[in-house]
Design a protein that fits this description.
Elements: H1 5-16, H2 26-31, E1 48-54, E2 64-65, H3 70-75, E3 87-88, E4 94-95, H4 100-107, E5 111-118, H5 126-135, H6 146-154, E6 164-167, E7 184-185, H7 199-213, H8 222-243, H9 256-269, E8 276-281, H10 290-314, E9 321-327, E10 347-352, E11 359-361, E12 379-380, H11 381-392, H12 397-401
Parallel strand pairs: 1-8, 1-9, 5-11, 5-12, 6-7, 6-8
Antiparallel strand pairs: 2-4, 3-4, 5-10, 9-10
Helix pairs in contact: 4-10, 9-10
Length: 411
């Protein structure tokens, strides 16, 4: 009896992947099996992009601070950072005092700050605004993410499963695509193992591997299933072999974000040919208690990214890795009654790396010429994406973004 692909995706893949050594993104690869075979350009040593998502809507005004602006102090009588504490970048703008690591990178010319980043008709919903950032389309609901479209655009047929890697508990919508399959890794030590790392667990994993990658079968798509299963195990083997070569004297901050960044450093050191890594960290929805919470969050980000950059320097990879950090929106100009700030619009993006042309880009939004109490964006976030695609990854941004956007000069 013949089985359609739709039927296979709804019932067959679940049966074949029992034990989950072959990961959930198997179905995506089965769907794409008719694509012409090929390989994404680049390979080991190619330029890499690391995307850092600050989930919750980081308050950009108390991150990159307009400390000389009287409107800043008037609107934030309790939250305004004193002039004497601001890490000054020039006579009007400075960084939050918790961000000493990023200030050091800025002084070395390795950090670019893009100001006033947003999009037309901003949405203040966490879910919808993050979706807009991840799909690069403010005008309609998209099924594909901007990174996924990039991976599809550079591939000729089914690319390596490691061309893109998501670090964390949940897959990012930015990776959604028609063809590219991207693994989400929750801890490198156990990647590719279906059972606990014990003698019995290793034996069971080995048996499952033989079942899923060996023999012949008349099952619809059976040959392809075995091929994907083998590639999955091969990817896990490559990761384990690669990270075994990683040695670093750099100390990362404790916590999930620092650990995730170090895992990305390990994967970069392994030279797997990954073009895009994606990592998220949360907690930035500071409706109350912002004076206590946000500095802790910003220090974690600053210390983590500084350690990551130092690690890249030590392994000689700094010039081929670019890191970009964003949040789905900023916060309102006026502080609220709960000692926090409410959902706003424009904020900033950080771009760092050995090849970055450091400095300030774009205009800081006016704190007095507002849109219903919110900042008016001065830089479209798609211009940042276009710059990353055109000038860093060597792709055609117009194909990925569906339109032409001005390139900036930070790289």
């Amino acid at each position: 009896m013949s089985v359609s692909r739709r039927e296979f995706l709804t019932r067959g893949a679940t049966t074949v992947a029992v034990g989950l050594a072959v990961p959930p993104w198997l179905a995506k690869m089965v769907w794409a099996q008719d694509a012409q075979e090929g390989r994404a350009p680049g390979g080991a040593g190619a330029r890499t992009l690391v995307v850092v998502q600050l989930t919750g809507g980081n308050d950009g005004i108390n991150t990159v601070i307009p400390y000389s602006n009287d409107a800043y102090k008037r609107n934030r009588p309790t939250l305004a950072i004193p002039d004497t504490q601001v890490l000054r970048l020039n006579d009007s703008i400075g960084l939050n005092p918790a961000m000493t690591g990023l200030k050091g990178l800025y002084d070395k010319g390795k950090l670019a700050i893009v100001q006033g980043v947003g999009y037309p008709n901003p949405n203040r919903s966490h879910f919808r605004s993050m979706e807009i950032w991840q799909t690069a389309n403010p005008d309609k609901i998209e099924a594909e993410g901007w990174v996924g479209k990039y991976l599809d655009a550079v591939r000729q047929g089914r690319a390596s499963a490691l061309t893109g890697i998501n670090i964390g508990n949940e897959a990012s919508e930015a990776f959604q695509s028609a063809h590219a399959a991207v693994p989400t890794i929750q801890g490198l030590a156990n990647f590719g193992f279906a059972f606990p790392r014990t003698a019995e667990g290793d034996e069971r994993s080995a048996v499952l591997r033989r079942i899923q990658t060996g023999g012949s079968s008349a099952t619809p798509h059976g040959d392809f299933i075995r091929q994907v299963g083998q590639e999955t195990y091969d990817s896990a083997d490559k990761i384990r072999a690669g990270i075994g070569k990683y040695h670093s004297a750099v100390t990362y901050p404790k916590g999930a974000f620092g650990t995730g960044l170090q895992e990305i450093a390990q994967l970069i050191a392994a030279n797997l040919g990954t073009r895009v890594f994606y990592i998220s960290t949360s907690g930035f929805d500071t409706h109350s208690g912002q004076a206590r919470r946000q500095p802790q969050l910003l220090q974690d980000i600053s210390d983590g990214l500084t350690a990551f950059q130092s690690d890249l320097d030590q392994m000689g990879a700094s010039d081929r890795v670019l890191t970009v950090a964003f949040s789905e929106f900023g916060r309102r100009v006026h502080e609220n009654a709960g000692g926090g700030t409410d959902h706003g619009t424009a904020s900033e993006m950080f771009v760092l790396g050995g090849s970055v042309k450091g400095g300030l880009y774009g205009d800081y939004p006016s704190l007095t010429n507002l849109d219903a109490g919110d900042l008016k964006f001065t830089t479209d976030f798609r211009s940042v994406y276009a710059t990353l695609l055109d000038r860093w990854l060597g792709a055609n941004s117009e194909v990925v973004l569906g339109g032409r956007y001005e390139n900036l000069k930070f790289v």
